[in-house]
Structure formats: C-alpha cells, structure tokens
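Dear colleagues,

For the upcoming journal club I promised to circulate an example of a predicted protein-ligand complex. I picked one with nicotinamide-adenine-dinucleotide because it came up in last month's discussion. The inputs are reproduced below in full, followed by the predicted structure.
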Amino acid sequence: MTDTKKNTLIRFATLPGDGIGPEVMEVALGLLRKAGDLHGFRIETSHHDVGGIAIDRHGEALPPATLDACRQQDAILFGSVGGPKWESLPPKEQPERAALLPLRKAFRLYANLRPGNLYPELSDLSPLRPETVARGIDVLCVRELTGGVYFGQPKSTKKLDDGQEEAIDTMVYLTSEIERVTEVAITAAKLRSGRLCSVDKANVLETSVLWRRVVSEKVAAEAPDLELSHMYVDNAAMQLVRDPNQFDVLLTENMFGDILSDELAVICGSLGMLASASLGADKNSHGLPYGLYEPAGGTAPDIAGKNLANPCAQILSAALMLRYSFGLEEAASSLENAVKAAIRTGHRTGDVSQGEPSVGTTEMGEAIASCLE
Ligand code: NAD
C-alpha cells in the first residue's frame, strides 16, 4: 500500500464522543489536514453525536442519524464515550455498550488491531524491567473480534435437579472466520518485519486445533515468505512480559486477544499513547476495509476539559485509518514518525512526563505538527 493516488479524497465520519474525546479529536483532525497538504490528499468529514452526549441530545447512545451518516462514509474516526453522568443507567443503555457494540455489529468489525508501542524515551513508564524495554516495545496484536466464546451458542444458565446452577458458554469458529482475520494479520505483517506468531490453545481446544491448521494453510498459500510461528496462550502471556520484542505481529482469537491486548497495553505504560483499529468485513469505496479507529483509553473524566489530555492515541488512530482504510501508508508513517519525533524532542503531556515540565493537549498537537514538516 503506497500513496500512489495524489489528491485522493478521503471521507470519514467523525464521532468525538464524551470527556476528552472532542479535545483530542480536534488536534487529530488538524494533523490529518496538515498530513493531507503534505501528502496530497483531501479530507471530507462530518461530526456526529455518540455516547453520553447523544443520550442527552437524542435519547440514545447511537442515534439512527449517526449510524446513517457512518454508512455514507468510508471509515469512522471515533473518540471515546461514557463518564460519571451516565454511570447510573442500566447496563444495556450505558454509552460504551449501547454505542460501540451496535457499531461493531453494523459494520461487521471482525478484526481488532492494537499496536503496542513504547518509545525508548518513555521506557520508564513500563512496569517491565528497564533492561527488557531499553529499546522500547513495538508489537502489533491482531484479535478476532466477532467469533469465539463471547458469541457462540448455546449460552445459558439453568437450575439443575440437584439444586446447583449450570452455566454454559460455547466456543465456535468457522474456517472463514479464521481465514479472514489471518488475511488481515498477513497484510499487517508484510507492512512490518514479516514475523507472525499465532496464539492458540491447540493442546486442549478443538477450535484452536482448527485455528492452527487454517492459519498455517492460509499463510503457506498466500504469504510463504512470512516467518510463521505458533504459541500456546499461557506461554504467550508469559513471553509478553519476559521479552515483548520477540513478537512482531501476534494473531489470536477473541477471548485470548481480549486478555493479551490489555496485557500489551499495560506493559506499554500509558493509555494516552495507544491507538486501535477495528476492520470490517465490507470494503469501502477505495476497495479497502471499512474500519473504526479509536484510542485504547476512555474518556478520562478526571482531566476532561482542562487541556491536559494526551492527543497521541487519537492521532495514531488517525494514522491507522490512513493506512488500513485509505491505503495511504506513507502519510500514516509520517504521522507516526511526527509523534515519535515530538516525544524524542522532549514534548510530553502530564500522563507521560517523568518529572520534566509537561505541555497541554493543544501544545502537544503543535509540537507534532512542527515535526510533520
Ligand atoms: P480511562 O481510560 O478514561 O482513564 C484511565 C486513566 O488513564 C485516567 O487516569 C485518565 O486520566 C488516563 N487517561 C486515559 N486516556 C488518557 C489520555 N488520552 N491522556 C491522558 N490521560 C489519559 O478509563 P476509566 O477511568 O476506567 O473510564 C472513564 C470512562 O471512559 C468510563 O465511563 C468508561 O466507561 C469510559 N471508557 C470508554 C471507552 C471507549 O469509549 N472505548 C474505553 C474505556 C473506558
């Protein structure tokens, strides 16, 4: 994927959400426009309510007008949703659940990509030993998002004759579900160093035996040059804290990915730096996956509205959107490099400062913009 098409128009829906969402979104959009000027693409976007603000204004977390607007576009750039004001609502109406789950369903978002990035300059933020993270961390976790035990049927709890209760979850995977997420991991690995580790529990689970076989066959058929390995999930959890950089791209099923991607986030030190992408089954008008791009963290109510939030996760999410939904690899890398350069030259928001004076959200954006030049 390279930026071959100059003056490409990129169209996406902007859903800033609640808390720090609108603040960091504004900075990210400014940088996207600047990247467009430098790399020859134009941006067309429209803003729509989602989450708590949508509950207040329209009575629901994902109003039909927001969903319709997303359907008209090629991708969604999402902020984050929720906050204390809406915490007393019934679980089903909570902003996160009532907005993100229907969006995942509507756009059949089956592959979740969570880059685990820790720059060497920020290595003190990691809970891992300094010698383990002296070079930083750079791992990408690709998680299957719509299958496995979270969605498999039957799923039930019933009373037994002897008075106990019995709960059942079912873990199901289809060949096609494994193949399509493997394809995403192959694309990602080709853009990186070409090493792919598939994580499963093939010594115990039938679904994992199928997973391992399908991943192996798919890679052998479509990307024989990749260096493919397999690892049991319990070992992968240990290896991630022992030596994270032994991995380049990790590919795994839904529940294992839920746990491993959070482990990866913790060892990378700050939520304010971590982006994520969820890619859908449908192709957009560029023939690339429709995707939802969002920071890994939440709405950070403790610092919202104070110009204290770290905009990097939102900017890095925008970079993932350029890469995966618009094929603008060069522009994506230049945004990522600008964030790295701003950190390298000592610019830090409070969450990643280690004693040095910190800058605000807008100042961090300006520092990144000047590195983009
Ligand atoms: P959180 O991620 O919002 O905050 C946890 C800590 O990390 C806080 O100290 C916060 O200040 C800090 N933090 C997070 N992002 C930051 C950033 N960009 N810059 C600087 N510091 C940052 O998690 P929480 O406190 O558990 O949740 C707050 C609200 O966010 C809740 O309502 C929760 O439901 C919601 N939430 C939404 C999403 C989402 O929209 N995808 C994800 C997680 C949490």
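Two points we might discuss: The domain at 127-267 is CATH 3.40.718.10 (Isopropylmalate Dehydrogenase). The chain has two domains: 1-113+271-373, 127-267.

See you all on Thursday,
B. R.
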